[in-house]
Task: inverse folding
């Protein structure tokens, strides 16, 4: 069965609820809570869910990599985004306190065995013929597209319909071309060479609307001596009612080793303690959804990075 977040108690100075939609939208944005909890927040505020989601999208527009978002936020939104230091986990706790017993504990997305997920049988899919035709139309037309110059928002949507391997390849190629890096050949380490000769490995992960979709980066090869940086790209399309969100993290080899020491890296089928220090097997990194925004400050990409 999927694991639920363990109950926690808030500590530190007390905080007061002003019932302000923008502040609560900010906490929803930071905590990455699901649609059901957002609906409960909207109901308690006395507004429609689409109004709350629109306010959340205003905060999305303030993130470093949000050029696909066209919203013009208010001065209050900008002020909250710049000055409110509440972390994703703290935001999660505050929303849980705000909703009280109505709050639904959400999955951590760690160590999920998808074979154990219960699926409700569906006997028919509305508009199946239309979906079928549109899907294969996209599959045919994207072959003709110059994906290096598409709007990032459109690239995300198109690539999300591809198989897992193709998604990563298309995004990796675009990143390498736009930043004028040198593509590695099969016999070399990493995926590309920076202009200074350092190797970089590019990893992409989509958080999809499918239940149990995890926030993880796999295939991390810590033993590759020439790879000095890891560009991790997480694209969140888990909620189609909110603009897709992209998170770019630039992690040095030293920082990745620190995460390994902190037991943040694992090897499928192996206990975390046994995985620490193991240099010969690719590892995976699991990230909690409420950490996604905070990691942008911890592992920022270079200022001249292009996507």
Result:
């Amino acid at each position: 069965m999927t694991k639920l977040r363990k109950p926690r108690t808030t500590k530190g100075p007390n905080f007061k609820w002003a019932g302000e939609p923008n502040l609560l939208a900010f906490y929803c944005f930071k905590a990455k809570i699901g649609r059901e909890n957002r609906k409960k927040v909207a109901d308690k505020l006395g507004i429609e869910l689409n109004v709350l989601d629109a306010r959340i999208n205003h905060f999305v527009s303030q993130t470093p990599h949000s050029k696909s978002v066209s919203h013009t936020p208010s001065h209050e939104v900008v002020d909250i985004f710049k000055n409110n230091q509440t972390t994703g986990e703290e935001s999660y706790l505050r929303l849980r306190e705000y909703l009280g017993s109505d709050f639904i504990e959400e999955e951590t997305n760690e160590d999920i065995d998808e074979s154990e997920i219960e699926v409700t049988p569906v006997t028919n899919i509305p508009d199946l013929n239309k979906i079928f035709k549109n899907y294969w139309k996209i599959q045919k037309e994207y072959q003709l597209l110059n994906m290096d110059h598409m709007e990032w928002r459109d690239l995300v949507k198109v690539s999300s319909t591809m198989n897992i391997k193709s998604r990563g390849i298309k995004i990796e190629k675009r990143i390498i071309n736009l930043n004028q890096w040198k593509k590695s050949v099969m016999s070399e380490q990493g995926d590309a060479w920076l202009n200074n000769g350092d190797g970089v490995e590019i990893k992409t992960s989509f958080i999809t609307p499918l239940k149990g979709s995890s926030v993880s980066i796999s295939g991390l090869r810590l033993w590759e001596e020439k790879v000095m940086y890891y560009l991790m790209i997480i694209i969140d399309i888990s909620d189609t009612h909110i603009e897709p969100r992209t998170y770019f993290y630039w992690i040095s080899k030293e920082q990745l080793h620190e995460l390994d020491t902190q037991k943040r890296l694992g090897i499928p089928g192996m206990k975390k303690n046994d995985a620490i220090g193991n240099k010969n097997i690719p590892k995976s990194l699991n990230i909690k959804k409420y950490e996604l925004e905070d990691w942008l400050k911890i592992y920022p990409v270079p200022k001249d990075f292009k996507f």
Remarks:
- The longest strand covers residues 227-236.
- Confidence is low (pLDDT under 50) at residues 1-19, 108-117.
- Strands lie at 182-183, 192-193, 199-207, 216-220, 227-236, 245-252, 265-266, 283-286.
